[in-house]
Batch of 3 targets.
Target 1
Amino acid sequence: MTKTILKALAGEVQDVPPIWMMRQAGRYLPEYRATRAQAGDFLSLCYNPELAAEVTLQPIRRYGFDAAILFADILLLPQALGADLWFVTGEGPRLSTITSEDELAQLKPVDEIDETLSPIYETVRILSRELPSETTLIGFAGAPWTVATYMIAGKGTKDQGPAHALKDGNRAVFEGILDRLTEGTIHYLSKQIEAGAEVVKIFDSWAGSLKGEDFRKYAVEPCRRITAAIKERHPGIPVIGFPREAGEGYVGFHAATGVDCVALDNSVSAEWAAKEVQKDGCVQGNLASTHMVTGGQALVDETRAIVKAFSGGPHIFNLGHGITPDADPDNVTRMIEAVRGG
Ligand code: CP3
């Protein structure tokens, strides 16, 4: 029997859409907080295959989601390429910056990244053994533009200003970083697939700050290159693209990149996306994650409205962005009941 997520990705329309949730393994769950405390800090958890597999499995046990997403982070790739990476509690990631020719030249070659990333592949192997047979295992990486915004600024930024400044000020270095990340991502995702990932997702969280020709060159084109390479090396492995807040850039994204599914954020309405995006293939999304905090009838109504809007085509139910630490775990149960129970 084919898994429901894989059916949706193959274009099948199902009465009940399969469901999983971005950041489903996370701080809103007491069992996650306990395992994270056991691991020490966040990065120690990412690089501990047994514990990373354990937190990946926790939301599957609790909720029976149709997919599990590998527990890791998009910033492990720059770390594997030689950037220093650490997390400041309450603030987020910090990295050593890269903005010059010299710093670009110091990045490690792609064939050395496995020295750092091999524990991640081990997590994938454990999961592919331990997941229930109906659950799909999703691997992932950040899109080159989004990862570059953190490498260039050395941290998360509201407007990705430093990355835009490098793009406009020293295009050769900027494009050199994107190229290295594109090659690294192809290698990293291929290794995840060889270890047992059945689907891969490319997170372009800051795609929305690229406009016009920049969107085409630095969001669409890297995603197209990565998808083409994955499809050539691993025929049959579906790819999900997430050009968050792309707005009109969502239109035609399936065809321009070759992805099997386009993940939608909350800035677009389900009715609009059903007409303009789902006509080209499977879509994923897009309940606002704030409903996981506020709950109530609005959560149920909005969940049903999204299921209905996308019922004419292939759809994977998800949030429009990751669930937040202040979410109530019971609201996740209500969302799943509203999707599955109608
Ligand atoms: O979805 C999942 O459950 C899979 C695991 C996953 C994590 N991060 C775990 C994580 C995935 C797919 C990501 C992607 C990621 N990481 C993105 C793209 C998606 C998005 O959210 O926009 C980005 C931009 C990052 C970088 C990152 N990692 C930031 C900015 C932060 C700090 C913000 C925060 O929530 O604290 C992280 C930390 C992080 N990554 C956590 C988790 C569960 C929280 C760490 C903790 O336990 O303290």
Target 2
Amino acid sequence: TAYNGPMANESNNKWDGIIVGASLATLDADSGYGGIEDGAMAWRGGCIAWVGRRRDLPGAPEELAREVVEGDGWITPGLVDCHTHLVFAGDRAREFEMRLQGASYEDIARAGGGILSTVRAVREVDEDELLRQSLPRALALLADGATTLEIKSGYGLDFDNERKMLRVACRIGEQLGVTVRTTYLAAHALPPEFAGRADAYIDEVVAWLPRLHDEGLVDAVDAFCEGIGFDPAQTRRVFDAARALGLPVKLHADQLSDLGGAGLVAEFGGLSADHVEHTSADSVRAMAASGAVAVLLPGAFHVLRETTLPPLDAFREHGVPMALATDCNPGTSPLQSMRQAMQLACTHFRLTPEEALRGATVHAAKALGLDDRGVLRVGQRADFVQWAIRHPSELGYWLGGRLARAVYAGGQRHLR
Ligand code: NIG
Ligand code: FE
């Protein structure tokens, strides 16, 4: 381990903090958990300054750091939720009941429910109220270990309401002190005022993007490429607009049918293709060649009672990294825990707990284009979680419960 430490006797040069007494799942290896038993990890200026075995520390912890934290259990990198729609108003519990009685997601969407019912709810509330309703979901994700959140627009579907959603997403990051990456998803559904005029709506989507980007509200661009969403030609126009601004793209791809969405992501050198239940072998090969991440969303798979599995073996065989996310949204995935997403991925997709943890950390960071987090390594952000577990595989095992003992983002502690 590189020594990046302070001189023990220069107190102003000490590390900000050090945690000892826990094992570390660094994930800093091509396979395995990168485990270090009886480890120690120090941070300074929001970044990891030292990682290794406690007995290899260059001095006594209290001489090396201003704060010494006694941990136990295991420490992992902070979890990264790389696909959420957690900014919304209201809920769709009634629609859930209708689906239990036999209505399909598509039936409900075509009848003006689904995404559009959340659009009505979002348009009705002001920015502060939207924040008030959304913040508890972000807090729940943080409390269960997520220190980076991606948040999409897509329930506004007009300039002012898309802007309102993206502003709320940014305010969540400021209020919680975690990284929020915003994604522009105006091409999520066709708003009623554009019924029958999807291409004209895409003209607007393309026109709003540079204005929102100018305000610093957009980190990436997404679309819903689906029979009940937008077709590949329309998606391509949205992607072209992103490319013109140098913004990375990602896509709701091949969730309910194969429209070649994941292949389109690969063609544009995009960050990720998400859902991907119906992705073809050709698209998997294209993703492997382009370096796109497959973002698996087991919450939506579970709630929609899907039966078509993503092409997991093909992803493995071609070395396409698989990330996990909650897809936290009121319709298809009212899921507010990354750990629960990991459990669902292990159960439904037979991911190993190790794949699930990598999917929730390293690969999820890659799906957001972030290379400063996802593993415990000197120089990475000091985003980490201390868990009350005996082995990291428990993170993919327990359903519910409270396992996160402490959550640190940028070296700041969030749970007491
Ligand atoms: O990721 N598929 C489209 N978007 C969301 C669902 C949004 C909603 O139903 O409100 C998804 O599943
Ligand atoms: Fe989604």
Target 3
Amino acid sequence: MKTHRIAVIPGDGIGKEVVPEGLRVLDAAARRFGLGLAYEHFDWSCETYRKTGRMMPADGLDRLREFDAIFLGAVGYPGVPDHVSLWGLLIPIRRRFEQYACVRPIRLYPGLDSPLRDPAGLDLVVIRENVEGEYSEIGGRLYQGSEGELAVQESVFTRRGVDRILRHAFDLARTRRRRVTSATKSNGIIHTMPYWDERFAAIAAEYPDVSTDQFHIDILTAHFVLRPGRFDVVVGSNLFGDILSDLGAAVAGTIGIAPSANINPERKHPSMFEPVHGSAPDIAGKGVANPIAQILSGAMMLEHLGHGDAARAIEQAVESALGDRRLHTPDMGGRATTAELGAAIAGAL
Ligand code: ATP
Ligand code: MG
């Protein structure tokens, strides 16, 4: 069997605590299914930045290029501005490797309390456009220090970029319940969002077997809370997809269980798998972070590498561990540690 080469970047804060649990579960899956996984560790982080002035070495992207996948914890830490950790590592990786589809599944796990009164049927995937849109470098400040000071930020929506993310959403919907919802805001954002809507209609016509609808982002967030069961695949721009996936993770019970994949669908480059959550400095170093988001990100990685059976087995092991409240970490209302929960999931495998 082919050995998959995995670049492991634990990063900062709880990234260093949950990645070892993710690897422990991947190893258990590899043993059970006879998979070959070879890891190489990279200690790139805000600490690296403090020592060297860079989040990763100048040839960092070239070194990652050779891998089959990247397994990332979280980057970002107090004292280092967010834009340094984001633009010094995460965003260059996503862009260089054309990981334009950010896939964030959200579902209800048994044994977990959702803050919603009626979470019935919550089982959706947010597809976020990952390399263009609102998160652009174009813009700046004018007349600094004067009364007329102003800041401008441009959004960029290319036909290539919009069409390919929409197609990714429709293709995924065909493997699920065949419904795509588009997040828009064409009543307030009058250039880019009407364009997005126009392309959504054009791509939808290529998929007559998939039903569609669209909502403005403001009311869409309300529906996520009030009627989450009505959604299957939800596709949004970089900003809207970001917001929806954090919200989705929260309504599922805790952000500590939400995995994500930054996919290069053409498989020309490595894809990257990381939890939705960040480095959580408020709980870092205490050994109480929930490792499930990292572990499920590992399941998504195995799925992407062609091992759907192993991915499903990890999900089942997570479900069985969640059935035991003694294994819940504090974010789930319990008292278990990161390592206890990780070991139980690996054991269940
Ligand atoms: P980022 O900007 O990287 O997305 P953030 O500022 O949104 O980060 P997070 O680091 O995701 O913040 O943390 C948000 C809150 O969720 C914090 O209170 C944190 O403790 C909690 N949290 C995040 N991840 C976990 C986890 N795995 N287990 C338990 N609590 C978590
Ligand atoms: Mg966040």
